[in-house]
Amino acid sequence: MSNAQLVLDQVDKFYGPVDFGLHAVKKLSMQVRKGEIIALLGSSGCGKTSTLRMIAGFEAVSRGSIALGGRPVHMLPPVKRNVAMAFEGYSLYPPLTVKENMAFALKAARLSQAEVEKRVAEVAKLLEIEDILGRYPSSISGGQQQRASLGRALIRDADLHLLDEPMGQLEPQLRALLRGRIKHFIKERGLTAILVTHDQTEANALADRIAVMEGGVLQQFDTPQKIKERPANLFTGTFVGEPPMNVFEAGVSGSAERISFGLKDGLRLDYAAQDFSPAVRDELLKRERVMLGVRPYSVRRAEGGMPVKVAVNQWLGDQTHIAADFAGNTMVLVEHDRVQLKPGDVIGIRLAPESLHVFDPQNGRAICHGEELA
Ligand SMILES: Nc1ncnc2c1ncn2[C@@H]1O[C@H](COP(=O)(O)OP(=O)(O)OP(=O)(O)O)[C@@H](O)[C@H]1O
What we know:
The chain is of the alpha+beta class. The protein contains nine helices and 21 strands. The chain has two domains: about 5-240, P-loop containing nucleotide triphosphate hydrolases (Rossmann fold, 3-Layer(aba) Sandwich), CATH 3.40.50.300; about 245-374, CATH 2.40.50.100. The chain has helices spanning about 50-55, 100-110, 115-125, 140-155, 170-190, 200-205, 225-230, 235-240, 280-285; strands at about 5-15, 20-30, 35-40, 65-70, 70, 85, 160-165, 195, 210-215, 215-220, 245-255, 260, 270, 290-295, 300-315, 320-325, 330-335, 345-350, 355-360, 365-370, 370-374. Strands 13-12-11-14-19-20-21 form a seven-stranded antiparallel beta sheet. It has a six-stranded mixed beta sheet with strand order 6-7-8-3-9-10, with helices on both faces. A four-stranded antiparallel beta sheet has the order 2-1-4-5, covered by helices on one side. Strand 1 and strand 2 (about 20-30) form a beta hairpin. The chain binds adenosine-5'-triphosphate (ATP). Adenosine-5'-triphosphate (ATP) binds next to strand 2 and helix 1.
C-alpha cells in the first residue's frame, strides 16, 4: 500500500487511436506525497500539459491509472476529483467579478460568509489583486486574469492543486515576489501541488521535487539539488542548469596509477587513479568512449592548466561568462567577478575530478558523478 497523495501508474497518453496515434506521454509512473510541491519541467511538446490535463480529468488516460488520496480517479469527471486548477484556457467566469470568481467554490462548499471574506482578502493580498476584486474578467489585463485564476485555485480546499504555467504572463519582478509568497502559502496549509513550467528558476525556487520530462518520458524525478548534482542522464544534465553543462566526447584509457580522457585536437585530461573510487575506476576502465560533462561554474582557471583560447567574454552584471575554444567545441566558464579578458587571450583551465559527470555515449545514462557511481 502506498501512502502517496497522488499515484500515476504506467500512464500512457495517445492522441488518436491507442498504439497508433501520437504518443504524448509514455508509461509515466510517479508518486507525490501529501504536502509536496512538484514541478513538471521540460521543453515544449514534452508532455507536461497532457500529464496535468489527465490528472485534472480534461484528457482521457489511454492506459494506466491515476489515484488521488487513495481512490482511483482516472475514470471520474473533473468535478468529482476534488482538484483545484489554474490552467490556461480554464478561464474565469465572465459574468462574475474577480471576487465572485474566487468565492464561487467556497460558497458551493457552504463556507460561512465571514470565512469566504477572510480567505478572499488573504489571497487577494498575497497576489496583489485587491484593487481589482470588483472588476469583471473582460476589463482586466492578461496578467491580472492570470493572478485571479491562480487565486481562485489557491483559495480552495482540495486534494490537489494543479497550476499550469501559473505566472507565465507576469513580469519578472512580480513573478519573483509571488513565487516566494505562493510557496509559503502552499506549505503553511500543507497543500499538495503540481506546477507545470518551462522556467528552471521557477521550478528550483518552488518545487520540493522536479519531474524532468522529454519526449513523453520521465527522465528524472528528484530534488532540485540532486538533479543538478547527480543528473540521471545527458538530457537532464544539459537541460537543467544555466548556462548548460559543457559536454565533450572522450576516449578512456588508464592503468593502476592513471586515468586519462583523450579529447579532440589531441587534448588529454590526466588524473591520478586514486582521484576516483575503485568502483568508478573499474567502471570507467571497462569503457572505450564516454561523454564528459562539466558545469560552467566548476571550470577553474589555473596557471599551468590546460591552455584554451577565449572566444567571448561577457559581464552580465553579477557574473562573467567566458566562452573558450576547447576540444573542437566551446567550453563555458562562469566567474563571479568581472574578468578582464579579450577574445584571443589564452588562459589555463583545470577540471577537478570531483566536478566531472560521465555519461554513456550510447544511451546517455550517467555512469558517475565525481567520485561516486551514478
Ligand atoms: N489535443 C491534442 N491533439 C493532438 N496532439 C496533441 C494534443 N495536445 C497535445 N498534443 C501533442 O502532444 C505532445 C505533448 O504536448 P503537451 O501539450 O502535453 O506538451 P507540453 O510539454 O505541455 O508543451 P508546451 O510547453 O508547449 O505546452 C505534443 O507533440 C503535442 O503536439
